[in-house]
Amino acid sequence: MLKPLGDRVIVETQEDKEETVGGIVLANNAKEKPQTGKVVAVGAGRVLDNGQKVAPSVKQGDSVMFDKYSGTKVEYDGADYLVLHEKDILAIVE
Amino acid sequence: MLKPLGDRVIVETQEDKEETVGGIVLANNAKEKPQTGKVVAVGAGRVLDNGQKVAPSVKQGDSVMFDKYSGTKVEYDGADYLVLHEKDILAIVE
Amino acid sequence: MLKPLGDRVIVETQEDKEETVGGIVLANNAKEKPQTGKVVAVGAGRVLDNGQKVAPSVKQGDSVMFDKYSGTKVEYDGADYLVLHEKDILAIVE
Amino acid sequence: MLKPLGDRVIVETQEDKEETVGGIVLANNAKEKPQTGKVVAVGAGRVLDNGQKVAPSVKQGDSVMFDKYSGTKVEYDGADYLVLHEKDILAIVE
Amino acid sequence: MLKPLGDRVIVETQEDKEETVGGIVLANNAKEKPQTGKVVAVGAGRVLDNGQKVAPSVKQGDSVMFDKYSGTKVEYDGADYLVLHEKDILAIVE
Amino acid sequence: MLKPLGDRVIVETQEDKEETVGGIVLANNAKEKPQTGKVVAVGAGRVLDNGQKVAPSVKQGDSVMFDKYSGTKVEYDGADYLVLHEKDILAIVE
Amino acid sequence: MLKPLGDRVIVETQEDKEETVGGIVLANNAKEKPQTGKVVAVGAGRVLDNGQKVAPSVKQGDSVMFDKYSGTKVEYDGADYLVLHEKDILAIVE
């Protein structure tokens, strides 16, 4: 199991293929749409300057929307995940 | 339904077409005017360093004015929206 | 009516024409003088890290001086305005 | 009268002429000396994160020394002034 | 023994070889996967602006995942370690 | 007399000559040594976010060591001084 | 004696020679190892925003490890030292 640190959130996501010709990425349209995914784990939250911990405002199971180029891709147990900072999440899709 | 996170605000907007020739954007005038839209959802607000949550100063239904290039475009249920940080909103149009 | 957000101030201003030749801006002198305008609306003020709101130090009707290139131009009801952050205002002209 | 905002200070100054050849500034020596001027007005001071206002440490009539390229030049009632942030003032000349 | 300072964490890691041709690094694939390692030492934590010390959220023995290019490589007693800031750790692998 | 503002310190210093050929500075060695000088005046100190004033940790008469390129050169009463921020002082030479 | 200011630490260090050909530094390997040294003096510590002073977490006599390119080299009494900020120290070598 992956346990994200601080204000991080781990998301399971189906990434669109990017077509490449000779290694050059061919974006299919100039203005990329954000991507959605399902939250699989959330960190304990970030610590404020007064020592108070702020719990994340998303929870496991939430569908979330985020910028396509946010976060760090990680592989775990054969599956691909994205580790995002909570501030990179635009909205919860309900 | 889209539920924006933190100090984010979701706005419904009619975007002006940009003319392009061969993929080059042709701005119709050098000094772009800001754009207006209607607020459809607001986040819970941002958290201050002392742990206090600051409620957004716009509400659902408000007409707002913002810089044309602010925010992130999202598509939801066939419609286009713009996700803005509250600080990107210039003024409420009353 | 335009209601500026946060520490923003809306100013009515007579902008000097900029001469252009073939779209190139011809500044009439190298060191531009700041511009003056009349405050038509002020926001509720900025929120400090301790949650306290700081009221703007300019009020409706004040003549103010600001850098020529500060702020965002907005059009409302056929007139042109400038939306400034209070910190962009240099001085009140009394 | 000009009333500077926040931590700003207005200074009356005799600026040295810069020689130019074809619009190119010819600095008379590579390491420019700071400039002095007389304070004609001071703002109410800056507001700290705890809401406390810090009064400026210069007062009207003080002779002050500042970097030649600090501040914004303003013209008022036919005279030239310089609007500086207090932090741009190096020293009071007593 | 190495005792990391502040919010630093020392990690023991098996680094993948990078193939080079004439000194040029040949990345084996464009999107590098993060790396994992075992925590061997943790600092006392970072000090908040209110003087409070925040203990690290990882402990000795934890398996952690981090960006391949985070941290500083150090050699100690013939072995290679990585000194990371706690904020560079993406997740604990349980 | 020069009275430095805030966290500034005024230092009297003997600057090494820099050889120049055609206006190009010829550094006599690639890694410049820091310079020393004698403190002639100190400001009242910087103001913290809680309103508290922090007195400088150097005093008049101290010999101090600082980076050769720190600070602003000022001329006063025929002598050359350097106005430094206290944080630019590396060490007191006792 | 050198008395470092604030959060500074003075370290005595044996620097590896860098081979140069015609003044070009030839790094002996692409990924430089950090350097170690012995702490000879520590400052009083840094001042937090609440006025509290944080004592350094290294003491005179400690062996410390730091990035090869951190700090400022100073010469004192014929010997070479390095003035580091405490945050540039990676670990204490025990």
From TrEMBL, chains A, B, C, D, E, F, G:
Keywords assigned by UniProt, alphabetized: Chaperone, Cytoplasm
Subcellular location: Cytoplasm
Gene Ontology terms, MF aspect: ATP binding; metal ion binding; protein folding chaperone; protein-folding chaperone binding; unfolded protein binding
GO cellular component: cytoplasm
Main location: cytoplasm
Biological role: Together with the chaperonin GroEL, plays an essential role in assisting protein folding. The GroEL-GroES system forms a nano-cage that allows encapsulation of the non-native substrate proteins and provides a physical environment optimized to promote and accelerate protein folding. GroES binds to the apical surface of the GroEL ring, thereby capping the opening of the GroEL channel.
Subunit structure: Heptamer of 7 subunits arranged in a ring. Interacts with the chaperonin GroEL.
PANTHER family in the cross-refs: 10 KDA HEAT SHOCK PROTEIN, CO-CHAPERONIN GROES
Record-stated family: Belongs to the GroES chaperonin family.
Protein name from the UniProt record: Co-chaperonin GroES
Gene that encodes it: groES
